[in-house]
């Protein structure tokens, strides 16, 4: 099946029963369940864009195996032009939710592509693993499947220092036995963003926590992918931040709830053809840097960051225009900070493409340092961006009638007192509902937490940047300076 439509995506979710729980209840159909359905609809809209006559050329490319159009985020880039095409496509998707859905399917499409292109890396572990990852990539590309992933073990005891975790004292997903049919795995994992709304789940090692060299570390060294409906796989959702309110009251939460879930795997059988890596601790620890998966997922992440920054700049500018605060110097300082963030993200995205190079697997790979810097910076930028929206909005974020109030007993008071010099009462209230949903509501708070953590915590990512950066030329400059007479 070439590039899917939204309806085909939704039908796929319905056709593959999966075990999803939310607030003590088993969800029968994620596409109609309140709190999940609108998020599913938003993902479906992305797939529909692949069939929009005005956009199709920018959303798809020709499959190398079937000659049919498939999603452009699956492309194995060989040139800088390929990277640009992919970024244009990813922008189209990112801009539909203004970056509020971080986990659009392109995030994992590019990651699996990178792993498949680096098939020989997996082949070192067992020769058949190379073909497994290549077959899997082709399978998800040709069927246009949606993936989630879980890389992190549930927190119980993070007493270890530096970049290792002690898997004996932790709650860790582990291989409990090997059979002729495949691996049997048991344990929980966090955090499957988009999990209930995905077709497949990929489980592979996290970049910023290395497996320690304990005797049974091999049990935790694996990479595989299985359908979300696999027997024994259960998704436990957090509460939904789509509270069933109108798009006026909760403009973001009512549309872009991508849901996060803990997963539990109760002796789940992973068929051998879905295993990409097993038992080799070194290969497991080096999977991300050696396949360059992080650079490619970063290309999607930074594209999303630009879309998000643009939206926040637009929102903040409208807020100050509405409140008439645009001549105040302190307000300028806050707006300038948002503009700086946007321009830094754009510049780093550009730098990653301009400095892209063909990697050892023959793939045109976005440059690591600009991608890493953009990803690390955004962890600190985004909470500040939400704070700036709060600082600019102040009481207008709480002097916030609901849509129903405009038809209630106080409607005349609202019209009389809540307009500003530049906005009607209704337009002002609608705008500040958006600001609150971005910077204060449960949906907005989750956005902040997402940006802080979804790609690992800032401290460990900082250590990785330091590890990968070569300061030697700069150190030499200083040595030369000190040597001057
Ligand atoms: C909204 C959201 C969505 C997410 N979606 C996904 C997803 O789709 N897939 C996925 O795999 N993961 C996802 N995650 C999980 C994310 O990868 C983790 O939150 C992140 O890697 C940090 O791990 P942790 O939460 O277990 O925190 P911990 O690793 O326990 O860290 C918590 C704090 O303690 C410090 N700390 C703990 N242990 C150490 C240590 N050994 N060395 C140094 N510092 C330490 C950290 O600096 C950090 O500040 C998501 C997280 C959030 C919040």
* Class from secondary-structure proportions: alpha+beta
Q: Provide the list of bound ligands, each named once.
A: flavin-adenine dinucleotide
CATH topology of the domain at 290-483: Butyryl-CoA Dehydrogenase, subunit A, domain 3
Q: Strand order of the main beta sheet, please?
A: 2-1-12-13-8-7
Low-pLDDT stretches are none
The main pleated sheet reads as: 6 strands, mixed
Mean of all residue-level pLDDT scores: 95
**Alpha-carbon distance between the two ends:** 71 Å
Quick one: CATH class of the domain at 290-483?
Answer: Mainly Alpha
Number of helices: 17
What labels would you give this structure?
single chain, binds flavin-adenine dinucleotide, Butyryl-CoA Dehydrogenase, subunit A, domain 3, 485 residues, four-stranded mixed beta sheet, six-stranded mixed beta sheet, 17 helices, alpha+beta
Task: Tell me what you see in this structure.
- The protein is an alpha+beta fold and 485 residues long.
- It has a domain at 290-483: Butyryl-CoA Dehydrogenase, subunit A, domain 3 (Up-down Bundle), CATH 1.20.140.
- Helices cover 47% and strands 14% of the residues.
- The chain has 17 helices and 16 strands.
- It has helices at 6-15, 37-49, 56-59, 80-96, 106-117, 119-123, 127-143, 281-285, 287-291, 293-323, 329-354, 368-393, 411-417, 425-439, 442-453, 458-468, 472-483, and strands at 19-22, 25-27, 60-62, 69-71, 147-149, 164-165, 174-178, 182-189, 200-203, 210-211, 222-227, 233-237, 261-271, 275-278, 357-358, 364-365.
- It has a six-stranded mixed sheet, with no helix packed on it.
- Strand 3 (60-62) and strand 4 form a beta hairpin.
- It is globular and about 75 Å long.
- The model has no long low-confidence stretch (mean pLDDT 95).
- The structure holds flavin-adenine dinucleotide.
